[in-house]
């Protein structure tokens, strides 16, 4: 399973990238707005750090506007993946962008049927938001299991990005389901490192080593 980092924060991207665990980056308008920087300049910085797919979202809600934005963004680098919202105008844009070899990530996906339509339209990636589904009392992960089954049955080329990940268990469940990608916030990647026995074990090794030198 590929790991993308779900942030637009340069420090977080740099740190996780140095750990050697980052295959790509996903951003969204909320994450970009938090950084208070010019979009193009920010994405350029990210492109200079991670050599992998970088998702950037359009702001337009009509297909013509989305296509215009997407064509411009895709010129920034071949690593750009354009995020398109899961609305009818969005899929209209995805169809045309796919025909023009522009990579797309259909976002704000909350149901299996939405993801099925996105794959039919030719999306490169689809992003079901599992945490936001859990928040309203649904089982977000079930969508990932269902989609893996359906995409495999019909050999869809669309890759599933598990998005809106809230905790390390979501990552384990994504990997067990065979998801192609999990896009993970920095704080959750940090938590994936942690085990008290690692810290206790390291402290003891170092103490024993010091003692042996006395
Ligand atoms: C995905 O690409 C989105 O950026 C993200 O996962 C949304 O997560 P949130 O529900 O934590 O905002």
From TrEMBL:
Coiled-coil features, chain-numbered ranges: none
UniProt pathway: Carbohydrate degradation; pentose phosphate pathway; D-glyceraldehyde 3-phosphate and beta-D-fructose 6-phosphate from D-ribose 5-phosphate and D-xylulose 5-phosphate (non-oxidative stage): step 2/3
Pfam families for this protein: TAL_FSA (PF00923)
EC number: 2.2.1.2
Identification of the protein by name: Probable transaldolase
Keyword Transferase applies: yes
PANTHER family according to UniProt: FRUCTOSE-6-PHOSPHATE ALDOLASE 1-RELATED (PTHR10683:SF40), TRANSALDOLASE (PTHR10683)
Family: Belongs to the transaldolase family. Type 3B subfamily.
Subcellular location: Cytoplasm
HAMAP family in alphabetical order: Transaldolase_3b (MF_00494)
Predominant subcellular localization, coarse grouping: cytoplasm
Superkingdom to which the source organism belongs: Archaea
Enzyme class, UniProt record, top EC level: transferase
Keyword annotations of the record: Cytoplasm, Pentose shunt, Schiff base, Transferase
Role according to the record: Transaldolase is important for the balance of metabolites in the pentose-phosphate pathway.
GO MF term set: aldehyde-lyase activity; transaldolase activity
Catalytic activity, reaction form: D-sedoheptulose 7-phosphate + D-glyceraldehyde 3-phosphate = D-erythrose 4-phosphate + beta-D-fructose 6-phosphate
Gene3D superfamilies for this protein: Aldolase class I
């Amino acid at each position: 399973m590929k790991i993308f980092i779900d942030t637009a924060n340069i420090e977080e991207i740099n740190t996780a990238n140095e750990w050697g665990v980052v295959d790509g980056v996903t951003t969204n308008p909320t994450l970009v707005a938090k950084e208070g920087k010019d979009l193009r300049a920010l994405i350029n910085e990210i492109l200079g750090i991670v050599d992998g797919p970088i998702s950037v979202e359009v702001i337009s809600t009509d297909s013509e506007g989305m296509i215009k934005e997407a064509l411009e963004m895709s010129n920034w680098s071949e690593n750009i993946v354009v995020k398109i919202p899961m609305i009818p105008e969005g899929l209209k844009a995805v169809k045309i962008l796919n025909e023009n070899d522009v990579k797309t990530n259909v976002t704000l996906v909350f149901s299996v049927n939405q993801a099925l339509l996105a794959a039919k339209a030719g999306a490169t990636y689809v992003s079901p938001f599992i945490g936001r589904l859990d928040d309203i009392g649904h089982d977000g992960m079930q969508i990932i299991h269902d989609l893996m089954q359906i995409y495999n049955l019909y050999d869809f080329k669309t890759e599933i990005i598990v998005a809106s990940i809230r905790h390390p268990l979501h990552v384990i469940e994504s990997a067990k389901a065979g998801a192609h990608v999990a896009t993970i916030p920095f704080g959750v990647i940090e938590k994936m490192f942690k085990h008290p026995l690692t810290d206790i074990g390291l402290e003891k090794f170092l103490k024993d080593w010091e003692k042996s030198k006395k």
